Backbone:
C-alpha cells in the first residue's frame, strides 16, 4: 500500500525521549509552514496517489480542525484507506 508521511515539527514541549526533528517554535511559523507544505504537495508530480496519509512530528494534534482539513485536502487520492495523525493525550 503506497503512503505518504508529512512531518509536522511543532511541539508544545520537546520530550526527552524524542529524536525526531521537532521542537517548540513560535506559533507564528505554523501557517507559513503549512502553506509551504501545501505548495510543495501541489507542485509534486504525482506518478501515483497515496492510499494512506500519516502526519507525524511533532504534535500535529495541536492543529485546529481547519488547519488539518487544509493539509489533508492538499493530498491527492482521497478517500484514502487510512489517514492518521500522531497525538498527545492532552490535545485530543
Residues:
Amino acid at each position: 500500500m503506497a503512503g505518504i508521511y508529512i512531518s509536522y515539527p511543532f511541539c508544545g514541549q520537546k520530550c526527552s525521549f524524542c529524536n525526531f526533528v521537532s521542537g517548540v517554535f513560535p506559533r507564528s511559523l505554523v501557517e507559513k509552514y503549512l502553506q509551504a507544505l501545501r505548495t510543495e504537495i501541489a507542485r509534486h508530480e504525482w506518478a501515483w496517489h497515496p492510499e494512506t496519509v500519516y502526519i507525524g512530528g511533532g504534535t500535529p494534534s495541536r492543529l485546529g480542525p481547519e488547519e488539518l482539513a487544509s493539509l489533508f485536502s492538499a493530498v491527492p487520492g482521497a478517500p484514502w484507506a487510512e489517514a492518521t495523525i500522531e497525538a498527545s493525550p492532552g490535545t485530543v
Observations:
- The longest helix spans residues 28-43.
- Strands lie at 3-8, 52-57, 82-85.
